[in-house]
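A quick aside before the break. I want you to see a complete sequence-to-structure record at least once, exactly as it would be stored in a machine-readable document. Don't worry about memorizing anything.
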Amino acid sequence: MFLPVLLIRKKHIIKKLLNKNAVSEGNAVTFEEAGIINPNGFKMFTKRLVEQGVLHQREDKYYLDTKKL
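That is the input. The structure line, written in tokens, reads:
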């Protein structure tokens, strides 16, 4: 997969989660709730964002760590 696609995906996820104010565990949302395109695609990339600490996952919900953006 090309790096630009992953960068676009990362920016899309960040934008959508910020629009939903998903910046704490209490405000976590599913990718579907956030309106993220193809929410079940790019699973390995999503996992990598969680491992890097950009995203935090609680069951099927996600929120951003704004310190890591």
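Two observations worth writing down. The chain has a mean pLDDT of 95. The first helix runs from residue 3 to 19. We'll return to this after the break.
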